[in-house]
Amino acid sequence: MFLIRQAVSADIESLLRLAHILNTVNLPEKAEALVEALKFSERSFSGACADPFEREYIFVAEDLQSGQVVGSSQIIAQHGTKSSPHIFFDVREIEHYSRSIDKHFKHQVLRMGFNYEGPTEVGGLVVAPEYRTNAAHLGKQLSVVRFLWIAMHRKFFRDRVLAELLPPLSEDGRSELWEALGRRFTGLTYLEADYASRTNKEFITSLFPQGTIYSTLFTDSARAAIGAVGKSSEPAKRLLESFGFEYQDRVDPFDGGPHFEAETDAILPVKNSLRATCKIASDVEMENNGALALVCSSRDAFTPKAKFLALQTQVKIVDKDRVEISQSTAKLLKADTGDELWVYCFNHTAKTD
């Protein structure tokens, strides 16, 4: 069984191990950067970060048997501001025709774009390799918990949600698109540029070519990387699509990873989440009796005592305002009768008394 909770500074060593697997802007592998990310996440959950659209939240999954943190996921309340815009390539097709030689071509082109009042972003989802085939579908839990948190605090998030998926990369972490484009104009390796962009995006706008870029000039492998999804990201892509996300013909300017978006209120776990008061039954009563759901309990949200906890468990929907959970689940969630819970049933239905 896994307990999903807000990350704390004490999780640094576990998250460094996970960051070594993913190593993205959202979950950096460098210890000092990850320490700062954890501190900022704690400030976000506690409300110490006053502007809700500046907040960034890190969730972790703890294996209750071993006590180890074995997965994580994140929310960035707003990706793209005036000081740090969201930068992307729009992927378009244009046509050329020569009447004199009767030649017609369709060309894929890239055009840089910016968003200064960007969408909410979900990202940083990683599960330790030995847990990826676990029957509990931990990756799905870590994905859904982000949308439940958004539903719980809807006014603090934007009307669209973005997910940037990782493209195929070489074994040594190189990006074919970066080698064909970015490196030629910045002189940086992919990893150097990725790290620099975490705190500085000026070099992208200053050094990248402006206007229309023809992918026809790239190598076959670089063209193939545009909008492609890496093998490790395929499960995330399928899950996001099942929630209502769609590819936007928009990619990351460094590696060509595709951008998927959805309207916030139309995302399945946001739309179908249930806010209810807690009713507690015995473990025997609840065993194999109910629907599988992710249940969230949040005490003192946006205060120094903030405590967010979530668990995948069996529930029974008593009525539209009450949900029944077992005593052991209530203990893990630190929930009492009458407390507020948020629930997402994975089959979108639950037994009702």
Overall geometry comes to elongated
Number of helices, where a helix is a run of at least 4 consecutive DSSP H or I residues: 11
CATH superfamily of the largest domain: Gcn5-related N-acetyltransferase (GNAT)
Radius of gyration, Cα only, in angstroms?
A: 22 Å
Query: Low-confidence parts lasting 5 or more residues at pLDDT below 50?
Result: 349-353
Topology as a string of helices (H) and strands (E): EHHEEEEEHEHHHEHHEEHEHEEEHE
Q: CATH top level of the largest domain?
A: Alpha Beta
For this structure, the CATH topology of the largest domain is Aminopeptidase
Please provide a written account of the structure.
The protein is of the alpha+beta class and 353 residues long. The protein has helices spanning 12-22, 31-46, 138-152, 176-186, 190-196, 202-207, 220-225, 234-243, 268-271, 283-286, 327-333; strands spanning 2-6, 56-63, 69-76, 86-98, 103-115, 120-127, 160-164, 212-214, 246-251, 258-263, 274-281, 291-299, 307-319, 322-326, 340-345. It contains 11 helices and 15 strands. It is elongated, with a radius of gyration of 22 Å. It starts with a strand and ends in an 8-residue tail after the last strand. Mean pLDDT is 92; it is low at 349-353.
Task: Write a compact overview of the structure shown.
By secondary structure, this protein is an alpha+beta fold.
Features:
353 residues, alpha+beta, Aminopeptidase, Barwin-like endoglucanases, 11 helices, elongated, disordered C terminus
SSE arrangement:
Elements: E1 2-6, H1 12-22, H2 31-46, E2 56-63, E3 69-76, E4 86-98, E5 103-115, E6 120-127, H3 138-152, E7 160-164, H4 176-186, H5 190-196, H6 202-207, E8 212-214, H7 220-225, H8 234-243, E9 246-251, E10 258-263, H9 268-271, E11 274-281, H10 283-286, E12 291-299, E13 307-319, E14 322-326, H11 327-333, E15 340-345
Parallel strand pairs: 6-7, 11-14
Antiparallel strand pairs: 1-2, 1-13, 2-3, 3-6, 4-5, 4-9, 5-8, 7-10, 9-10, 11-15, 12-13, 12-15, 13-14
